[in-house]
């Protein structure tokens, strides 16, 4: 990027000092990443979520704008841009205005360290995973600011709930992630992926029983951090009207949702990176397209995306099939179950590493067999439900 | 010295997603836990009872739809019965059966909507949509029966407005055959869900004594363990000829009279309604659907009170006639109004989220509170 900045400086902006040009190029690059990467991901996820939700609820979902409604999110974005931007009279104006951007910032900056392929990563920080959790925590500030700044009691309750919820669930998140960090011996996301392999028995998910449990802890904790159902208490529509975003409208409102869907993607990315082998592609497949070619990178990207979307699908399905838990039940779950089990897993992984430095293949295959059985059962249930579904009954004689 | 804290006064409603219409609660809360919730009714008062004094007896029928728009048939039936009692009218048996068929169909969709609303207030959006889908099918049946989908005005004084259209029985039986597996599916989906049980079990417990003292009616009363159903205990219409059970709350999650019991009682009542409908379709005789009625209705001076078991319980009509074409006084007694009164007592020390569950589980319908 520095070469690019120097090139720009020499050819176009030779009047400005190099440091300023560097800054401009950096912001430009960030802008491109934002538009070219985050927006389509968040937008596509909104489309996916709405279509899946529609299927679950016997509806059709958006299918008018673009092929199969794929461009619906663009239409919604444009609509929101033209909406009137209301600021309540009693609102704390600066807080009210800045809050959605903070929420968005927290989500957007986490994309910086996501490893899309072995080479496609904006910054391979040596504290990558810590950075991810740190940026996710910025959103809390934004949510509390939105709740407080709206000048509405319902919003404030929502903001308080989100603060309590997200900060509590940071702890199981960190503990569960620690198991993978222990195994890899690194905080860098690229190194964690590199320490795993392309095949399931090389993933940390199946490495030992403790990481297996840690995966689910991380899954639940990340769902809770993203304010998704069944943990969507901060925006519980039927309780708090709409929580912290009650008073927002137009583009600011959209930013909250943008952040929510971006978080959905980040959730999948974190789980994939830590436990599911990230972008790892089997070597034979990699060799067939040339290990150094651009096609290999795209292949890696596709593998990474596929794993993410499987997880995203699960989260979306979860959201539309279960009720919301209550505040005290959610806190109970975090402090009485997830945190102790998280500690247990960390200790277990450490002991396991001491006892079996090379891992136990028998346990790995057992875990894989167990998971495969669960997945098969899932598909069997889906198939059964599909088969048992009742034919459409039309009773209106006038249709 | 501790930190000085004070209670926060929250204004829940009149526009709030889970007050199901225009009801207001003044909630005093200390964060998530509230100290009390005082219902403030009257936002939907349309003077229906006063209108009843201005309209002629027949002309008031459409207004009874609006008294409880979610089970308009039951409201219609009660009013028709009280006027018939004043006039001393005999109505044909086929009309009675048609009324019961319509009322039970209406009970099904009223209950199914209530069940969906409870699930939605707890945060599951999907069961509500599934429930609405089934409701649409019954609405189709109702449309075939009387041309309306919500405010039916199907029942007339002296009978009903139309006979069944040809093929109605077959269509209804087809629907019921389809609906029974849906209820099993629904039971599997919602009340067996772990989170749902956690959210409703032990929430908003109304004891048997409280339920009687606060004059709760219908499913809310039965969920508290009181075996009382007007259809059986103060029978009317053709209910004595039909076989049905009265489901009572058994406390399957530990306490009798919690929100979970109210949910289960409504599910069981739907199943009873299905069986009632099947019996009605098997028994319905041929004959007139509208009896001989006087052209101008001028009942003798007197008063009359009729109670019917509506979807929300005991719905009573009190009528005073002064011998003219209009009633001297019309009074409608509804179940939702009395259930509002118990909210203040039960909700003390509840969590905010539980209040929403509790209100939804009482199946309060705003227009029925205020009339």
In sequence order, what are the helices and strands of chain A, one letter per element? HHHHHHHHHHHHHH
Question: The CATH topology of the largest domain in chain B is what?
Answer: Cytochrome-c3 Hydrogenase, chain B
Question: What count of structural domains of chain A?
Answer: 2
CATH superfamily of the largest domain in chain B: Cytochrome-c3 Hydrogenase, chain B
Helix content of chain B: 40-55%
Characterization of this structure:
Chain A has 399 residues and is mostly helical. Chain A folds into two domains: 270 residues, no CATH class; 40 residues. Chain A is 69% helix and 0% strand. Chain A has 14 helices and no strands. With 371 residues, chain B is an alpha+beta fold. Chain B folds into two domains: 45 residues, no CATH class; 311 residues, Orthogonal Bundle (Cytochrome-c3 Hydrogenase, chain B). In chain B, the strands form three sheets. Chain B has a three-stranded antiparallel β-sheet. In chain B, strand 7 and strand 8 form a beta hairpin. The radius of gyration of chain B is 21 Å and the shape is globular. The chains are: A mainly alpha (399), B alpha+beta (371).
SSE blueprint and pairings:
The complex is a heterodimer of chains A (399) and B (371).
Chain A: H1 2-11, H2 18-56, H3 72-82, H4 93-110, H5 128-149, H6 153-184, H7 189-195, H8 209-225, H9 237-240, H10 250-275, H11 283-289, H12 294-319, H13 327-355, H14 361-388
Chain B: E1 8-12, E2 24-30, E3 33-40, H1 48-54, H2 61-67, H3 72-87, H4 93-122, H5 126-146, E4 155-156, E5 159-160, H6 168-189, H7 194-200, H8 208-213, H9 218-223, H10 230-233, H11 259-283, E6 302-310, E7 313-321, E8 327-333, H12 335-346, H13 352-361, H14 366-370
Helix pairs in contact in B: 2-3, 3-4, 4-5, 4-11, 4-13, 5-6, 6-11
């Amino acid at each position: 990027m520095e070469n690019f900045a120097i090139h720009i400086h020499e050819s176009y902006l030779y009047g400005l000092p190099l440091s300023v040009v560097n800054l401009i190029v950096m912001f430009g690059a960030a802008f491109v990443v934002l538009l070219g990467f985050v927006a389509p991901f968040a937008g596509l996820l909104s489309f996916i979520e709405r279509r899946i939700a529609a299927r679950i609820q016997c509806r059709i979902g958006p299918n008018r704008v673009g092929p199969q409604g794929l461009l619906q999110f663009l239409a919604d974005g444009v609509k929101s841009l033209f909406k009137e931007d209301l600021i309540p009279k009693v609102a704390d104006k600066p807080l009210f205005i800045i809050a959605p951007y903070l929420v968005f910032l927290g989500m957007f900056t986490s994309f910086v360290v996501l490893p899309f392929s072995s080479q496609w990563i904006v910054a391979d920080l040596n504290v990558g995973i810590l950075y991810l959790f740190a940026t996710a925590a910025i959103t809390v500030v934004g949510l509390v600011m939105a709740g407080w700044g709206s000048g509405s009691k319902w919003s404030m309750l929502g903001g308080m709930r989100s603060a309590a919820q997200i900060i509590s669930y940071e702890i199981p998140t960190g503990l569960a992630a620690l198991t993978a960090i222990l195994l890899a011996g690194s905080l860098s996301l690229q190194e964690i992926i590199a320490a795993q392999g392309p095949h399931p028995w090389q993933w940390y998910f199946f490495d030992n029983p403790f990481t297996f449990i840690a995966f689910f802890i991380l899954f639940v904790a990340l769902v809770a951090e993203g304010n998704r159902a069944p943990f969507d208490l901060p925006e519980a529509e039927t309780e708090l009207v709409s929580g912290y975003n009650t008073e927002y409208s137009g583009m600011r409102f959209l930013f909250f949702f943008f952040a929510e869907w971006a978080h959905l993607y980040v959730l999948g990315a974190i789980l994939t990176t830590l436990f599911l082998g990230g972008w790892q592609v089997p070597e034979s497949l990699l060799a067939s397209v040339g290990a150094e070619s651009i096609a290999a990178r795209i292949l890696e990207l596709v593998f990474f995306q596929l794993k993410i979307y499987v997880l995203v699908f699960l989260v979306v399905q979860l959201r539309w099939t279960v009720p919301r838990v209550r505040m005290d039940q959610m806190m109970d779950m975090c402090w009485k179950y997830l945190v102790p089990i998280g500690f247990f897993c960390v200790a277990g992984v450490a002991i396991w590493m001491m006892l079996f430095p090379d891992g136990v293949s028998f346990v790995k295959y057992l875990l894989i067999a167990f998971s495969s059985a669960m997945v098969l059962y899932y598909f069997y249930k889906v198939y059964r439900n599909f088969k048992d579904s009742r034919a459409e009954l039309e009773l209106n004689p006038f249709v | 010295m501790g930190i000085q804290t004070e209670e926060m006064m929250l204004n829940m409603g009149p526009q709030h997603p889970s007050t199901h219409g225009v009801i207001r609660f003044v909630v005093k809360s200390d964060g998530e836990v509230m100290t009390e919730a005082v219902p403030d009714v009257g936002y939907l008062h349309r003077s229906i009872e006063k209108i009843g004094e201005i309209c002629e007896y027949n002309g008031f029928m459409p207004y009874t739809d609006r008294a409880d728009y979610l089970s308009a048939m039951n409201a219609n039936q009660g009013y028709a019965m009280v006027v018939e009692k004043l006039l001393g009218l005999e109505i044909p048996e086929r009309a009675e059966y048609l009324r019961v068929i319509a009322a039970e169909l209406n009970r099904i969709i009223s209950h199914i909507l209530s069940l969906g609303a409870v699930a939605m207030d707890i945060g599951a959006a999907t069961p509500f949509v599934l429930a609405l889908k089934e409701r649409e099918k019954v609405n189709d049946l109702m449309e075939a029966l009387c041309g309306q989908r919500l405010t039916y005005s199907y029942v007339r004084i002296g009978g009903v407005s139309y006979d069944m259209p040809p093929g109605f029985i077959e269509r209804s039986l087809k629907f019921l055959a389809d609906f029974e597996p849906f209820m099993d599916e629904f039971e599997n989906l919602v009340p067996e869900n772990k989170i749902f049980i956690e959210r409703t079990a032990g929430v908003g417990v109304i004891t048997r004594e409280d339920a009687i003292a606060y004059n709760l009616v219908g499913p809310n009363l039965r969920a508290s363990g009181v075996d009382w159903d007007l259809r059986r205990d103060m029978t009317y219409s053709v209910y004595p000829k039909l076989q049905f059970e009265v489901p009572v709350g058994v406390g399957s999650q530990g306490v009798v009279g919690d929100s979970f019991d109210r949910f289960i009682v409504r599910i069981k009542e739907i199943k009873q309604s299905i069986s009632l409908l099947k019996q009605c379709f098997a028994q319905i005789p041929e004959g007139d659907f509208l009896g001989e009625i006087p052209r101008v209705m001028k009942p003798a001076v007197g008063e009359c009170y009729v109670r019917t078991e509506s979807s929300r319980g005991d719905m009573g009509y009190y009528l005073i006639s002064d011998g003219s074409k209009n009633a001297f006084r019309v009074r409608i007694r509804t179940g939702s109004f009395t259930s509002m009164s118990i909210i203040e007592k039960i909700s003390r020390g509840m969590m905010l989220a539980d209040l929403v569950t509790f209100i939804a589980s009482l199946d309060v319908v705003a227009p029925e509170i205020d009339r």
